[in-house]
Automatic annotation (TrEMBL):
FAD/NAD(P)-binding domain ranges (all copies): 8-305
Protein name (database record): FAD-dependent oxidoreductase
Keywords: FAD, Flavoprotein, Oxidoreductase
Stored InterPro entries: FAD-oxidoreductase/Apoptosis (IPR050446), FAD/NAD-bd_sf (IPR036188), FAD/NAD-binding_dom (IPR023753), FAD/NAD-linked_Rdtase_dimer_sf (IPR016156), Reductase_C (IPR028202)
Recorded GO MF terms: oxidoreductase activity, acting on NAD(P)H
Amino acid sequence: MPSNQLKRVVVIGAGVAGTMAAQTLRTEGYDGELTIVSAERHSPYHRPPLSKKLLTGKVHRAGIDMAPQNELAARALRGASAIGLDMSSRTVEVRDDNQNRALTFDGLVIASGAVARQWPGGPVPGGVMALRTVDDCLAIRDKLGKRTRVVVVGGGFIGTEVAASLRSLGLKVTLLSQADTLLQSALGHEMAQCWTDLHRQHGVDVRVGVNVDRLVGNGHVKAVQLSDGSRLKADLVLIGLGVEPAIEWLRGSGLKVDKGVMCDATGAAEGATGVVAAGDVARWWHPLYQQHLRIEHWDHASRQGVAAARTLLAGPDNAEQYDAVPYFWSDQYDVKLQLVGVPTGYDVVEIIEGSAGDWEFVAAYGKNGRTIAVLSTVPGRVNDYRSAIGNQAEFPPRLHT
C-alpha cells in the first residue's frame, strides 16, 4: 500500500524510467499530487528507434511515442529543466517558461537521464551533429542525400547502430574508433572483433585505433583530419562519444553523486530520504555483482523506474532490493545482438553454442570460475541463461535439459 506520508511526488525526467515510475505510482495506488518535469517538449517516446528505424524512415515520428497505459492525472511541465535541489525545504527548483519555480515534494524520482558528450575541441562547423533526442534524429535525416558522405566518430553502440542504419540506406560511411575494435568496452576485444568484421563486410570503412585531430571546414564541415595523417572527406559528421549523467543540478544538494546518483540496492538515493533514482542517471548497488552499476539500456531503465516507484511507496523499512540481471539488445544489419548480464572484468570468454562464422552463436563470459554474462545472436536465446547468471553458475554454463 502507498505510504500515507506521500502527498506530493515530483518526477524529474519523462524518458522510459520516469514514465514507468509515474505509471507505477498510479497503478499501485498513489492518489496524491504528481508532477512530471521533462526537458523536452515532446510527449514521452522510445529512444532505441532513433538510431535505427526512425533514422532510416522505416517508422514515422508518431510510431515511437510511448502508448499511454493509463490516465496518470499528472501535471506535466514540458520544456522545463531541474536546476537545483534543496533537501532542507524539500523543493526542486525548475526553470520553466523562462521563469524559476520551486516544486515542493514528499517523494522525488530522479530520472533526469543523460546528455550526449560534446566535441572536446570546442565549437564545431555546421554538419557536425550528435544523436540523443528525437529532434536530433529528425535534423540528421534532413541532412541526408543520396551522395552524402558520412563520418561517424565513436565505435560504441550509438556509433555502430547509426553506421549500420546509414549504410543500409546506401550511403558512404566511415566509422572511427579509438579502441582497436568496435564495441570493445561493451563486449571485450574477442567478441567485439565479430562486429568490427560485420561492418566491414557491409561496406563500412572502419578505422580503429585512431583519433580525430581536427574537423576541417569553414562554416560547414568538409573533412576529418585523423591522427594517422589521413584526411576523410565528409558532408556530415556524426559524433557518438557516449553520454554523461545529468547530475549538475544536484551539486550541493547533499545527495551522494559520483558519475551518477549513488543508490542502494532498492534504488533509494544515498544521502536523503524519500528520494529514488532510476535510468541513465542512477548508479544502483547491484547485489549480484557487488558493485554500483550505471547501465544505459532501455530494458534496465524501464525496470528500474518500476522498482524505484515501489521503493518510494513502500518506504525505507519495507523496500525490496532490485536485483534483475541486466539485459540489452542492438540491431545492426540483419544481426540481433543480445546480452544478458554484465561482462565487465571477465577473465574468460567462450563460444558455447554455434559458431561466430555463421552468425548464430552463444558466447559466455566468466569471472573467477562463475558465469557473469551471456551474449547471443540467436533471438531470445540469452533468456535461457538468465538463471545461470543469477545463480552464479560455474563457467561455462550448462543448460539443464
